[in-house]
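hi! just following up on the protien thing from before. the input was this:
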Amino acid sequence: MADVHHLRDNPARYYEVLGRVMSALRETGALNGASHLDWWPGDGGRTWEIEWQGGPFPTEVAARLLGAPEPGIGEEQGDHAVHGLISPGRGENERAHLVVLDVPVNLRAIDPIGASQVWAALSLAQG
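and the predicted 3d structure came back as:
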């Protein structure tokens, strides 16, 4: 398998991936209940690293991202902003990995509580 440096080899696609993922995070509310969102180029421009504190588990976030609609596309067309594969981190609830337009995206949560706990806490706060 050839070593691909996405930032150097195709910077437009590399940044498109970040834009799609960040837009999908906003549009889906996948990180409701999380704080301290941060992102940076990983592995010398080969991946994107996205990290937050609290909130849902990364695999929950990844699943919601893959269902995000393409901005400006009608729902009847069924296009999604984020296409890819999900794999959980090495036996951990704190990590998940996506591949979006051939660019790896690593998701990491510090002290996640899970989506069900987030929604329970939000429901109590509103009630």
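The chain has a mean pLDDT of 79.
The radius of gyration is 15 Å.
cheers
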